[in-house]
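Quick question, first post here. What does this chain look like in 3D?
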Amino acid sequence: MEREWLFLLIPLVIGVIFLCFGVYGLRLARALRRTGVTAAGRVVRHDTRRDDDGATYHHPVVAWKTRDGRECEYTSRLGRGTAARSFGVGTSVTVRYDEENPRRFAVQGWDSTTVDTVFTVVGAVLTAGTLSVLLLLITL
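> Answer (accepted):
Ran it through. C-alpha cells below.
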C-alpha cells in the first residue's frame, strides 16, 4: 500500500463535500419547517444564470414583508431549467423565512429538499465506500 491510498482521497473529499452541502440544506429546510414564519410573497422577477456547460437556470426573486414590517426581496437558492407558469412574474407565493435572518427562506412549491437529499445520499455512499476500501487496504 504505497500510494493507493492517495487515489482514495479524491472520492473521499468529493463525498465529504457532497455530504456537507446536503446536510446543510436539509438542516435549513428542517429549521424553516419548525420555526420559520409564513408570509405572503410575490415573484418580482427571475434571475437567470448559466453554468459552464451553457445550461440556463431560473431563480425566482421573491418580495414579501416580515411581521415587523421590513421589506424583503431575495433570490431563491435553487434554480430550475424552466420557470414554471405557477411561479411566473407577479404570481403570489407563500414564503417561509427565518425571522432573525430573512435571507434564509424557502418558497413553498419551488424549493424542495430533493436536491439536498440526493447530495446527502451520494455523499454518504462515496464517503462510506471510500472509507471501507481504505480500511480494507490498511488491514491487508
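The chain has a mean pLDDT of 88.
The first helix runs from residue 4 to 35.
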